[in-house]
Specification:
The chain is α/β, with parallel strands linked by helices and 303 residues long. Helix content is 43%, strand content 24%. It is built from 12 helices and 15 strands. Helix 1 (3-18) packs across helix 2 (21-28), helix 1 packs across helix 3 (32-46) and helix 1 (3-18) packs across helix 4 (62-90).
Length: 303
């Protein structure tokens, strides 16, 4: 069925309700001649007369009466659709699929999600916690937390903060290993690298050091890297938000404290749409205003 015919069905129902082309044209803000012509074209499309026309009045034919019932059902369905969306705007519901790296998902996002569901209990959350990069649009995700600005122009990235990162190791590992006072000595140590950060960049004043890590111990999960470091497996690079508690407990200590590791940016990413669902719009608002990301950007206590 053509889109124009749906419009003409609504116009026919309006003519039947008003009882004249003149009144219907006024309600529809159309010229009377246009209304009359479109009803005639609708009749020609259907192959049946819908209205008996006289100089004084319009009367529905038998076919017109039957057709009017279906036109009114169509309009009622449209009204129900509008009401359903209005209720959705007033009380967001439905499902949101969120993608997040493991470290963020197990810490900051968990706290944010709890607050979000207290505010919007009718919204269901499906959260994929993985450091594997996913195609958001292809895999049907509504939003994602990502380190680094999105390169895909079809995605919108809203910056949430900058995370300082630190080289850390357990006191036991450092006690049994060669002393380390210079970045060049990292090559003499066991190191646990994250797959997304195969190069460690350090700075001390105007001095810079970049090291491409050997692939002797690599992971795609920061929580794993942290636990390995605590167990004495070597040196790793961790963001402050994932290491604050274990550093306070002296399970990990800073390596090369005079050198500052390069941090990374955190973004909320979602598909570029002019009209997002009410649930997604509320989620975006909560994320952008949530204090949990202050913790993300906070440095460790010794700084």
């Amino acid at each position: 069925m053509r889109f124009k015919q749906l419009q003409d069905m609504a116009l026919f129902a309006l003519v039947a309700e008003c009882g004249s082309f003149t009144a219907a044209a006024k309600r529809a803000a159309l010229p009377k001649s246009s209304v009359s012509q479109r009803i005639s074209q609708l009749e020609q499309t259907l192959g049946l007369r819908l209205l008996n026309r006289t100089t004084r009045q319009l009367n529905l034919t038998f076919a017109g009466e039957r057709y009017l019932e279906h036109c009114q059902e169509m309009l009622s369905a449209a009204e129900r659709a509008d009401l359903a969306l209005q209720r959705l705007r007033d009380n967001p519901s439905g499902r949101l699929r969120i993608s997040t790296p493991a470290g963020l998902g197990a810490t900051l996002l968990a706290r944010l999600a709890a607050d979000f569901q207290r505010q919007y209990p009718d919204v269901s959350l499906e959260v994929s916690v993985s450091d594997a990069m996913v195609d958001m649009v292809q895999e049907g995700f509504d939003a994602a937390l990502r380190t680094g600005k999105p390169q895909d122009s079809s995605l919108i990235g809203r910056r949430l903060g900058h995370a300082p990162r630190y080289l850390l190791a357990s006191p036991a590992y450092l006690a049994e290993s060669p002393p380390i006072v210079d970045p060049q000595q990292l090559q003499q140590h066991r190191c646990i690298a994250h797959r997304s950060w195969p190069v460690w960049s350090l700075r001390r004043g105007d001095e810079y050091f970049r090291w491409q890590l050997p692939m002797r111990h690599i992971t795609d999960n920061l929580l794993y890297a942290r636990e390995c470091a605590i167990a004495g497996a070597g040196i790793t690079l961790l963001p402050a938000f994932l290491s604050r508690e274990v550093v306070a407990q002296r399970q990990l200590v800073e390596v090369l404290p005079d050198w500052q590791a390069e941090g990374n940016e955190l973004y909320l990413v979602y598909p570029s749409r002019k009209l997002n669902s009410p649930a997604l719009a509320c989620f975006i608002d909560v994320v952008l205003q949530h204090p949990v990301f202050d913790d993300y950007a906070r440095e460790l206590a010794w700084k």
